[in-house]
Amino acid sequence: MMDDVLTIGEMCAAYQVTARTLRFYEQKELIWPIRQGSHRLYDRKARARLQLILRGKRFGFSLEDIRQLLDMYEREGSNQAQLERTYAVAVDRLGQMVAQRDELDLAIAELKQELAEGAAMIAAFKAAAE
Predict the structure, then answer these.
(1) Considering only CA atoms, which of 60, 73, 59 is closest in space to residue 30?
(2) What's the confidence (pLDDT) of residue 2?
(3) Cβ atoms < 10 Å from Cβ of 11
(4) In the 8-state DSSP scheme, what is residue 36?
């Protein structure tokens, strides 16, 4: 059993996170390492939870959403409620992301227009100075 654990350094390397991040998630009760004195060891469950946390963060889920979704997991259950809630949170987040992208696309188009006008004005100034 203890052969199947990673140290905090190994976790950091494997998942490209900092020790501070792992301790933060532990403080927020999202993961629970095995304690051996002052050493933290991470079993399969902790690694699986970390993968889900990182995926949720990449999608922009809040830590509270992630916690609630993880807490809904039932080892021996169907996890239908967890799946339905995850789906609803993901649909909502996708809507937010699409709206953000649309706003960004608009800002990019406006900035390009402003830059084109600015370039034309600069060229006019240079032509007049010659």
Answers:
(1) 73
(2) 57
(3) 23
(4) E
In angstroms, how far is the first alpha carbon of the chain from the final one? 80
pLDDT profile of the chain (130 residues), mean per 10? 83 96 95 92 95 96 93 84 94 97 98 98 93
Query: Taking the CA of residue 91 as centre, how many other CA atoms within 13 Å lie in the half-sphere pointing to its CB?
Result: 6
Q: Characterize 94-117 residue by residue with b for buried, 16 or more Cβ atoms within 10 angstroms of its Cβ, and e for exposed.
A: eeeeeeeeeeeeeeeeeeeeeeee
Residues written for the chain = 130
* Spatial separation of the C-alpha atoms in residues 94 and 43, rounded to whole Å: 32
Concatenate the DSSP letters of all residues of the chain into one string: -GGG-EEHHHHHHHHT--HHHHHHHHHTTS--PEEETTEEEE-HHHHHHHHHHHHHHHTT--HHHHHHHHHT--TTS--HHHHHHHHHHHHHHHHHHHHHHHHHHHHHHHHHHHHHHHHHHHHHHHHHH-
Q: Which residues, in sequence order, are bridge partners of residue 36?
A: 39
CA 99/CA 120 separation, integer angstroms: 32
